[in-house]
User: Which sequence fits this backbone?
């Protein structure tokens, strides 16, 4: 940290966040694919493995992290810096803490950009091994501004196996590549349901498309996560499946795979590799 | 049409769209709840009942209507006006026709607003009984600009029964009320899955929350739609379930209920009722 890496692409160097080693964005082309569920459970699983972890809910309009993490206090402010909340060993910041209840936040783009930058840079994250950023769904200008100005180690793209979701996931991969953010991998969420009555597998949203898309786009495939009513219930009740004894194995595996991918990708602060123009 | 209604709220009157009788927005607080699936099948079902129907895909970043309707041609332009495509008796416009493939559209808010206005006002919709507008998911500034400047008859809010989705659906209802757009009703999509192996019901995303939320918010409840792999497959294959013989009953019922609600709500062009400040 402190030493700027050379910047052959001519872009503005991205200021590192003091104390934060790796920033990982979790994105999706389409909403409702379980992006926040993945971000929350990945953060909790990384903390469970002994790492110092923060989770920034950057979905200003639909911040679901407070509900899923079961916490909704107002953060304290000391000398113009916001103190993150902490739950299940993860430091948290979300618009949902500042605007609880049902009223929508109706802000224009530039204001949104400012508040996310404040969440990244004016929050007392302290020493973190991993800061997970739960992006708003989609590939719009808010997402683009955020990933352009943040020294991301890499990004994870969440999709379901449905063609409609995959169509949007490919857009998300292209968005990250356009601004030279390494895609750590694609996760296929809601891959299949195991019927709780008969135990048979139901391919609710089709099957196999995540792996196929990852191969086609030459992106690492981080695996399948089943459509499990218990995962949804864990989110709705504020007790993420990853903290529940004997139920979080898939997320522990995902956390380990993510750590391995981060090690492959290396130093987060320079332009890592030029994939395309 | 033509005569402006009195405007006691001091807002700009909304210019009607020549030839279009009713504009209905389909929105959701959260993505991935089946908003586009509902919009597509509602449009097709209304056309099947003999009405003249248009469908505008206002989701610029993730336009899934072309895939779901099985059409992706480039629309013709005559004298600076765009001719909509037509499929299954529905006139269609989507950013996906102009930007096919996987590249994301990366535009800022004002540009987005312009393109949606062009889609509403510079497309040769012709005579339509119903123009269905598939909004982008969420409650951001693009959605707000659109519903503030469009003479909507009303809006339909799609949710799943999960608490996370309902949390965002309430925000969407508030958004419509803030700008005095009548909420025609809430639809609970993905209500339950009937296991194709054993025939038993699985409450994948919980159950009953749509009806409960509609009651709490004093919004009409437009009913439950099951999580049916055939509906998803219909969308992925470009053959909406509502055109498939013997399978579209739920959407025919939804179309009839929507028509009834539109009749209750009455004239679309004036400020309809003041629900709250």
Assistant:
């Amino acid at each position: 940290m402190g030493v700027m890496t050379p910047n052959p692409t001519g872009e503005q160097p991205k200021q590192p966040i003091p104390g934060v080693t790796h920033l990982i964005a979790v994105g999706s082309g389409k909403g409702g694919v379980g992006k926040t569920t993945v971000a929350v459970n990945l953060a909790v699983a990384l903390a469970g493995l002994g790492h110092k972890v923060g989770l920034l809910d950057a979905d200003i309009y639909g911040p679901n992290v407070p509900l899923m993490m079961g916490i909704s206090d107002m953060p304290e402010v000391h000398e113009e810096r916001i103190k993150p909340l902490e739950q299940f060993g993860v430091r948290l910041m979300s618009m949902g803490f500042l605007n609880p209840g049902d009223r929508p936040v109706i802000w224009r783009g530039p204001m949104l950009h400012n508040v996310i930058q404040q969440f990244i840079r004016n929050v007392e994250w302290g020493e973190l091994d991993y800061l997970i950023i739960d992006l708003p769904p989609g590939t719009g200008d808010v997402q683009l501004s955020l990933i352009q100005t943040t020294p991301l180690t890499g990004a994870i793209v969440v999709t379901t196996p449905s063609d409609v979701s995959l169509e949007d996931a490919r857009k998300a991969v292209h968005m990250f590549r356009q601004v030279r953010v390494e895609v750590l991998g694609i996760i296929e969420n809601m891959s299949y349901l195991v019927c709780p009555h008969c135990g048979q597998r139901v391919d609710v949203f089709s099957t196999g498309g995540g792996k196929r898309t990852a191969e086609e786009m030459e992106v690492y495939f981080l695996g399948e996560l089943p459509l499990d009513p218990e995962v949804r219930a864990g989110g709705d009740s504020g007790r993420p499946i990853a903290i529940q004894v004997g139920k979080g194995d898939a997320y522990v595996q995902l956390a380990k795979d993510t750590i391995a991918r981060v090690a492959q990708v290396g130093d987060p602060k320079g332009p890592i590799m030029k994939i395309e123009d």
In short: The first strand of chain A starts at residue 20 and ends at 27. The mean pLDDT of chain A is 89. Chain A touches chain B through 57 residues (CB under 8 Å). The radius of gyration of chain A is 18 Å.
